[in-house]
Amino acid sequence: MYGSHTDRLKYGGNTGPVGGVTPPIPTATAASGSLYGGSSLLGGNARLPDVDSDTAQLPEKPQLVNGQDADADLGLYLDLNSVDEPQPIRGDYGQVDPGPRTFQYEKLNPDLFAPPGTDAGSVPNAVWPLGLSHNRPGYRGRSGWARQQNTDVLPNAKRMAGVDMKLAPNAYRELHWHTAGEWALVLKGCVRVAAINDENQSFTDDLCEGDVWFFPPGVPHSIQAFDKGVEFLLVFDEGDFDENGTFLVSEMFARTPREVLSKNFQADVDAFKDLPEGELYIFNGTQQPKDIQQQNITAPGGFLTGNGSYTYHWSQQEPYHVPGGSVKILDPRTFPIATMFSAALVTVQPGAMREMHWHTTSDEWDYFLQGSGRATIYHAPSAGRTFDFTAGDVGYISQAEAHYVENTGTEDLVFLEVLQAPKFSDVSVAQWLALTPKQTVKDHLKLPDKLIDSLPKEKTILKVGNKNLTALAGGGKAYEP
After folding, report:
1. 60: burial class by Cβ within 10 Å (0-12, 13-18, 19+)?
2. Which partner for 236 in 82, 180, 266, 441 could form a disulfide, CB atoms 3.0-4.6 Å apart?
């Protein structure tokens, strides 16, 4: 029957006795028994249990995935989706888990559940799924929604925060401004943005998927979807930024005495009788004219263009192709208004990886648009932890921490790297060693001559690899194309 309890989603997890409870328990028709036990149950008073009566082992041999028996230090990617009940075992380490679990979490995070043997010590959490963020709906009429990541949910992300926002066809993110700089990437659909600055200049532009805008702190702006809606990603240069704390035009008017409004706008007080009763936030609007010239208002200081432009049509930039994928970079050298926002849009093909590197002056804020990947973060002096990412996840890596991003799926991995830096730059581990005296490298790492001689003196950005991520377990090679 529709709506019955049998229609509900069944979450994978342990069943049977646990913690002294044996579900399903009998259904009671009236209260009975006591909420508390007595002193006879205290240690020394209670009868000793039969320690052979309960078990923390599985009734059958655990089902392991390909590569799970291999040497833990190989750190092979484990496809825990290929079994019903994954186990936290890698090589000679770990043990079965018969206790309280939701299998889907472990399948999404195999490198946390069964970590590589090379992981060590403590590393700040580097992943937050926006699917776990509270999704704030807009005004009535299914106008849209927004969900955010900030230091409340990812404490180490001190320099940047993110918001994923959807506007229904012709809906607005109401006129507002904030204390943080706002960098945005259009994910789906098209949008019109408008703003003015403190130099008496105005700006209006239309953007579609793959395009970018930036509004400096304090600059008031509006965002309106076109008739097929829009979804965009916002990145702010304050880690504790709160989407719910922006300055709103509706609230500014609501908190100002009517006498003051009348005087400020030189209008009869009745002109303000229909002001909104509360904040609009996200709300449905009337369709804007397709001809943008009809909404371009000439300001005393003129119209912002060139290096002063608040937008960049990144979708029209051709990517830089390399073996293993492609990269597009946008930083203040080509988008001057965003003085400290540098970004790379990276596509990594199956089996390939973003090469081992670190950023010298900035933390790295990542957003995963499609596919799945993992990264091991080296945290000075001797800690490292491997994290898994899927579409909709935010990643955060502190300044100077070495890492890579490996495609762990069968489709292209697409992700965004954002830095707070005047140019996009990194240090390639392979290039560093290639440009270091050979004897120095040998004395430090005992690497063979053949390897050192093959190191590229130019950054490769991406590295190709075997699409079979457990090839090493069968005697194959990780880097075979």
Report:
1. exposed
2. 180
| Cα 415 to Cα 388: distance, rounded to the nearest angstrom | 13
What are 260-302's pLDDT values in tens digits?
999 999 999 999 999 998 899 999 999 999 999 999 888 999 9
Nearest residue to 225 (alpha-carbon basis) of 303, 145, 161: 145
Please count the other Cβ atoms lying within 10 Å of the Cβ belonging to residue 322.
16
**Predicted local distance difference test score (pLDDT) of residue 449:** 97
Q: Are 214 and 181 in contact (CB under 8 A)?
A: yes
pTM tops 0.70, yes or no: yes
What does each C-alpha distance from 34 to 41, 233, 340, 394 come to in angstroms? Answer: 14, 54, 64, 48
Token pair in block for residue 319:
């990517």
Terminal Cα distance for the chain, rounded: 52
CB contact at 8 A, 354 and 360: no
Of the candidates 212, 463, 164, 188, the residue with the CA atom closest to the CA atom of residue 329 = 212
One-letter identity of residue 298:
T
Q: What is the pLDDT of residue 237?
A: 98
Percent of the chain with pLDDT over 90: 91
Quick check: bond before 381 cis, omega within 30? yes
Confidence band of 1 (pLDDT split at 50, 70, 90): very low
**Alpha helices for 96-158 (secondary structure H):** 103-108, 110-113
The pLDDT tens digits for 145-177 are 999 999 999 999 999 999 999 999 999 999 999
372-389 residue pLDDT tens: 999 999 999 999 999 999
pLDDT band, residue 187 (cuts 50/70/90) = very high
Spell out the SS3 assignment of 161-213: EEEEEEECCCCEEEEEECCCCEEEEEEEEEEEEEEECCCCCEEEEEEECCCEE
pLDDT digits (tens, 9 = 90+) for 237-260: 999 999 999 999 999 999 999 999
Q: Catalytic one among 106, 355, 364, 417? A: 417
Phi, psi of 191 (to 5 degrees): -150, 150
Q: Is 406 a catalytic residue?
A: no
C-alpha distances in Å from residue 425, one per residue of 36, 342, 404, 456:
63, 9, 15, 17
Tallying the residues shown for the chain, one arrives at: 481
Q: What distances in angstroms separate CA 84 from CA 7, 256, 305, one per listed residue?
A: 21, 60, 57
The whole-angstrom separation of Cα 364 and Cα 159 is: 9
